[in-house]
Structures are given as C-alpha cells and as structure tokens.
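ZP: hey, is the thymidine-5'-diphosphate complex queued? I don't see it on the tracker
AM: it wasn't, my bad. submitting now with these inputs:
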Amino acid sequence: MIAKVSQIYFPVHGDQRGSLIAIEHNIDIPFSVLRTYYIYGTKQGISRGLHAHKRLKQVLIALSGSVTILCEYIKKKEYYLLDSPNKGLLIEGMVWREMYNFSKNCVLLVLANEHYDEQDYIRNYEEFISMTSRNVQ
Ligand code: TYD
C-alpha cells in the first residue's frame, strides 16, 4: 500500500436488530475530527476530488453504496473500493486522489482533522508531481 494511505476496518456491533458502528476519535481513527462532510447524489460518470492536500488527513467511508478511490503518491498509484460502511480509507497529506464510479445511492462520508482551508489544496496535477518528486530527492 502507499505509505500515506491505509485501510481501516471498523468493528461492527450487530445483533438481530441490525448493525451499528462507532468511531472513537484518536482510537479508531488517528486524529480528532474538526470537519465532517458528505458527498451524495453524484451524477453517473462524474469524478470528484482531483486534488491533493498538503497536510490534511481524512478518512473516507461509503455509508451507503460504493465508490472507487484512486490514490497516487510518489509515482505509485493504487485503487481502493469503498463498498461497506465498515471500511474506511485514511488518506494523509501529499496524496493525489480521485473519486469515481459512484453508485447511484452512494453517500460518501469524509472525516477531516482540519477546518476547510483552500490554501491546503494542490489542485494542479503538474504542481503535485513536481512537489512530490522534489520530496524524494
Ligand atoms: P470540491 O473541492 O470541488 O469537492 P471535491 O473535492 O469533491 O471535488 O468542493 C465543492 C464545493 O464545496 C466548493 O465550492 C468548496 C466547498 N467546500 C466547502 O465549503 N467545505 C468543505 O469542507 C469542502 C470539502 C468543500
């Protein structure tokens, strides 16, 4: 796996009534959440993301439906399928991400360790490549 991306499997508390997942900050995920947002109603064929963050850490969870996440870090690309509410994808800083193949019913929850800050975004792919290759040298 890419060093700055990891999969998290949350324990499911299930019984005859159904299922429940609890996410304890700094225990089940390695940070305290300052921001939560969710993406839903994504049109067919649409890709989202297409950026990296300099420092932000995020955990993505498909609460409903499924979505594929492409992550790229220092010339290594990996694809992750989020298709269950107990699967989380932790993405740290300097990882290019693209979200695509959203199912119609997909609700993608994102937990973030910082408030929204446009200055933390790298939206230009060439700039991302040049910043990460500089880091390796
Ligand atoms: P955008 O960055 O385009 O989303 P994605 O990464 O999925 O392509 O964000 C869409 C809009 O929502 C944009 O106007 C910025 C705004 N936004 C916030 O106000 N707060 C947030 O936490 C996020 C993630 C986006």
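AM: back. DSSP finds one helix and twelve strands in the chain.
ZP: great, adding it to the tracker
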